[in-house]
Amino acid sequence: MRKYVKYEIELVTKAPFRIGGVKPVPGTTDVDSPIVKLGNRVVVQGTSLKGALRAELERYLIDRFFDKENNQWKDEWMKPCIPADERTISPDEKKLIDRGLYKYSCSYPKRDDYICPVCYLLGARGLVGFVEVPFLNMEKGDVALLQFIREDRVVGTSAKGERGALGKYEAVPEGSVFKGVMAILEEDDIIGWKLGEPRDLAESKGDKWLESGEWTKEKILKELIEDRLKAIRKLGGYKSKGFGDIEINVRRV
Predict the structure, then answer these.
(1) DSSP state of 107
(2) How many structural domains compose the chain?
(3) Of the candidates 252, 192, 198, 253, which has an alpha carbon nearest to the alpha carbon of residue 226?
(4) DSSP characters for 144-159?
(5) Using the 8-state DSSP alphabet, how is residue 77 labeled?
(6) Furthest-apart CA pair in the chain: how many Å?
(7) Are the beta carbons of 228 and 57 closer than 8 angstroms?
(8) Quick check: is 164 in a domain?
(9) pTM (whole model) above 0.70
(10) Lowest mean per-residue pLDDT among 9-18, 140-149, 189-198, 240-249
(11) Helices (DSSP H) in the chain: which residue ranges?
(12) How far apart are CA 12 and CA 232, in angstroms?
C-alpha cells in the first residue's frame, strides 16, 4: 500500500508569462511562437516546474551547507549533483564540479556513489524519487497575442522578405492563475520506503544524508518542498524581456 502527502500548488503570474510550445507548421497559423497547451488548455508542464524546483533545492543546499570561506562542505552528503556525466557535461558545469559545489550525476546502480538530497526527492538516473511533479492547468486568465519586430542580426535592422518585419507570439497576462496537485510518497510498504528514512539500496551507498536522523519527514516537507516551491520567483522564457515573474502558494490537502 502507498500513502501520499498531497499539496495544492497555485501559481500566480506577476508579469507577462510564457513557456514556449512546439513551433507551428508553416502556413497553418500566423503565430510564430505559441505557448504550451494540452488540448486547448494552457498549462505549465511538469518538467518546467520540476526544473525550477531542482534549481531552488540546489541553491538552498549550497547556501546552507557549503562553507564558501573555507571552500568545503559542512556535510559532504548534502552536496547536490549535476544531472550529467563526464561524457555529456558542459565546460561551465565542469567548472562548478571542479569548485566542489556539485558532484557528477547520481545514478543507480553505482556502488561507490551516494544519492544526493535533490535526487532522493526528484529521482536519479535509474531510480525514482518521492515527488510526483504535476502539470499546472490555467484556472484564470487568457492568452494574449503580442507583436514583435524581427531583426536581421547581420545588418542590424528590421528583417525583410516574405514574412516581413512583424512577428507574433503568445503570452499569458499578469494575474493569471494555474493550479495542480503535487503528490509526495510518504510510505510504500511493498518496497519498504518511508519519506525521511534511508532506503535499503543494495547497489549504492544510498541516502547517506538521512542517516543522522536530523531530517524528519516533516522537516523535509517544510524545508525542501513547501519552502522551496514558495522560493521560486521566475519561470518560463523571455525573462530578459520582463517576462516570468511568478508567485507560488502551497496548501496541504
Answers:
(1) B
(2) 1
(3) 252
(4) EEEEEE-EETTTTEE-
(5) G
(6) 66
(7) yes
(8) no
(9) yes
(10) 140-149
(11) 46-65, 91-98, 117-122, 217-219, 227-231
(12) 11
- Name the least confident of 56-60, 157-161, 212-216: 157-161
Give 50's contacts (C-beta < 8 A, 6+ positions apart): 122, 133
Specify if 121 maps to a domain.
Answer: yes
Among the listed residues 235, 233, 234, 242, the one whose alpha carbon sits nearest the alpha carbon of residue 146: 242
Give the mean model confidence (pLDDT) for residues 165-194. Answer: 92
pLDDT single digits (tens) 67-102 = 999 999 999 999 999 988 788 899 999 999 999 999
In this model, does residue 217 exceed pLDDT 80?
yes
Q: Could you tell me the three cell numbers for 39? A: 488540448
The overall average pLDDT reported for the chain is 89
What is the Cα–Cα distance from 238 to 253, expressed in whole angstroms? 33
Question: Is 50 exceeded by the pLDDT of residue 25?
Answer: no
- Residue 224 belongs to some domain of the structure: yes
Cell of 235: 519561470
Query: Range of 201's domain?
Result: 2-146+173-252
Domain annotation covers residue 247: yes
